[in-house]
Specification:
The structure is a single chain. By secondary structure, the chain is mainly alpha-helical. The protein has one domain: Winged helix-like DNA-binding domain superfamily/Winged helix DNA-binding domain (Arc Repressor Mutant, subunit A). A three-stranded antiparallel beta sheet has the order 1-3-2. Helix 1 packs across helix 2 and helix 1 runs antiparallel to helix 4. The longest helix is centred in the first third of the chain and has 16 residues.
Length: about 140
Amino acid sequence: MHSNTTIILMNKIVNISNASFIALHSLAYVASCKKVIIIQKISETIKIAESHVAKLIQTHLKFGYLKSTRGPKGRLVLIKSPINISLLEIFELIEGSLQIDNCPTQCKMCSFKTCIFGGLPQKMSLEFQKYMQNKALEQFINENK
């Protein structure tokens, strides 16, 4: 590698981390049960280690999506209405605000007249944002009955 080489890092276009995956699926499962549920059952159903599920459940508890009962077999119940919870809301709870950029590189000025990606990264991010914003947890539950 030459000493004058500049490395341009790519920003993520859309990234669904394991944490977001677990947060979305665990909350959807609790909402679909319409009864109190234990973390072990969530873990078994979404096939994710109980310790990982428990960490994300803490976030749901902290931000008022779930309520739990105390004890070694603490039970969870959804306290927000699933019709009022968008998938984007849960995604951004874990990942932070979705950033929609014209270009996934961090360079200030493009070397070309037209973008090599033709605006695709922005289109993909906008489509993802639109889908997640317009899909309430309740809709997901109804589709999977």
